[in-house]
């Protein structure tokens, strides 16, 4: 008896597979009819009675089951989250104020950043400046332009949608091209009288790396303020070895120093859109 039932189930299974392959579009009705045939066989074995009620119930249950399967919502494709992007322009106001207090050094600087990621920014900075030395025994002037390129990342998650107040950590690579003018210097003579000499002008290229920490605060919609502290590492400290180094390389600081600290305070405006 067990062998006969096994053979019957194998035959029914083979028939189901063949019918499904040939009539794929009618798979729902085939499932119902096949399962009904199986129910009839089992009903004849265990309860040799009228199976009309059983057939009706089985068919109805299968139809309900198939309808429930069709009603199950399919997973939709994941969409990239929409977040607000911005292109921000900021001007440094700390160095012009510092130039009023120390006219021998001056720097004008702009900062632009853009957020290709939700909490990180690509930063481009640039400016122009110079310095002068007017000592009794040394006189010269210098001037240069500079650019810095880097990235910044927000240190904290935003508290709510549209929260643009953040503390940032970043890195920069900077480079400056300029000229130190002819330097005139006085050589004192202990036996009386002084002699003077002059060095030739020198064109220079200076580059450095920076680590930054700063604050960005949205005063009003799209109107920003903030500050930045920088630690700078000169990558071409030997370029002025044995020569007169500029007292102020705009964007970096004193040319003879292997490291420098810097500070900026910004005001700016941002253009925003969603993508």
Describe what you observe in this structure.
Helix 1 runs antiparallel to helix 2. With 275 residues, the protein is of the alpha+beta class. Residues 1-6, 12-17 and 19-28 have low confidence and may be disordered. It has an eight-stranded antiparallel beta barrel with strand order 1-2-3-4-5-8-9-10. The chain is elongated. The protein has four helices and ten strands. It has helices spanning 2-22, 27-46, 52-71, 94-101; strands spanning 84-92, 105-117, 120-134, 138-154, 166-180, 184-188, 194-198, 202-220, 223-234, 259-274.
The helix/strand class is alpha+beta
- Outline: elongated
The counted number of beta strands is 10
Uncertain segments are 1-6, 12-17, 19-28
Rg, please? 40 Å
Q: Beta-strand percentage?
A: over 45%
Strand order of the largest sheet: 1-2-3-4-5-8-9-10
Describe the main β-sheet briefly.
8 strands, antiparallel, barrel
N-to-C CA distance: 69 Å
């Amino acid at each position: 008896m067990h062998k006969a039932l096994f053979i019957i189930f194998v035959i029914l299974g083979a028939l189901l597979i063949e019918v499904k392959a040939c009539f794929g579009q009618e798979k729902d009705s085939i499932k119902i009819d096949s399962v009904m045939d199986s129910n009839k066989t089992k009903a004849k074995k265990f309860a040799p009675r009228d199976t009309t009620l059983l057939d009706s119930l089985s068919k109805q249950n299968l139809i309900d089951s198939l309808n429930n399967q069709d009603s199950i919502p399919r997973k939709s494709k994941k969409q990239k989250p929409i977040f607000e992007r911005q292109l921000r322009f900021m001007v440094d106001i700390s160095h012009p104020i510092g130039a009023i207090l120390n006219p021998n050094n001056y720097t004008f600087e702009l900062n632009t950043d853009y957020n290709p990621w939700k909490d990180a920014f690509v930063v481009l900075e640039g400016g122009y400046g110079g310095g002068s030395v007017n000592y009794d025994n040394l006189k010269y002037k210098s001037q240069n332009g500079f650019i810095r390129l880097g990235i910044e990342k927000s240190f904290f998650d935003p508290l709510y949608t549209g929260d643009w107040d953040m503390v940032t950590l970043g890195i920069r690579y900077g480079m400056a091209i300029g000229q130190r003018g002819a330097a005139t210097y006085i050589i004192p003579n202990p036996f009386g009288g002084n002699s003077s000499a002059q060095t030739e002008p020198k064109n220079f290229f200076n580059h450095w790396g920076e680590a930054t920490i700063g604050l960005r605060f949205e005063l009003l919609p799209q109107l920003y303020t903030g500050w930045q502290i920088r630690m700078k590492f000169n990558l071409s400290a030997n370029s002025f070895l044995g020569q007169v180094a500029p007292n102020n390389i705009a964007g970096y600081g004193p040319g003879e120093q292997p490291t420098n600290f810097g500070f900026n305070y910004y005001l700016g405006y941002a253009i925003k859109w969603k993508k």
